[in-house]
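Notes taken during the Thursday session

The instructor put the following on the board and asked us to keep it in front of us for the whole hour. The protein is STAS domain-containing protein. We were told not to look anything up and to reason only from what is written here. First, the residues (103 in total):
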Amino acid sequence: MPPRSGDPEAAIGRTRPPGRPPVLDLGGLTDMDGTGPHVLLRVHGDLRRQGGSLHLAAVRDLPARLPRTTEVWDALDTHPSAQAAITALLRPAAPSPHPRRLS
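Then, after some discussion, the predicted C-alpha cells were revealed:
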C-alpha cells in the first residue's frame, strides 16, 4: 500500500490479487492513529463478506498498541512476518471439529 494514501481501503483493493487474500506487511509502519483500526476492520469485514480475509504481517509494537487496546486486534489475522502469513495461507484448512449435519 502506498504510504499516506488518501484512501487506504481503495489502495488495498487495487493491489489485492483477485481471488487471493491480501497480506499487508506493516513492518515499515511506525505509528497508527485512531482511523487505522477502523480502516482495518472495514477492509476485514468487506473481505469476510466476499469469503476472504485480511492478513497483517510484521506489525510493530507502537502501531499495534491502538488495535490491541480497542480489541480490534482479536478480530484480525496477524502474523509475525509476511513469510509467516504466506505460509499460513498455503496450509490446507484444518477440518472443523464440529461437522455440519446435512438435512
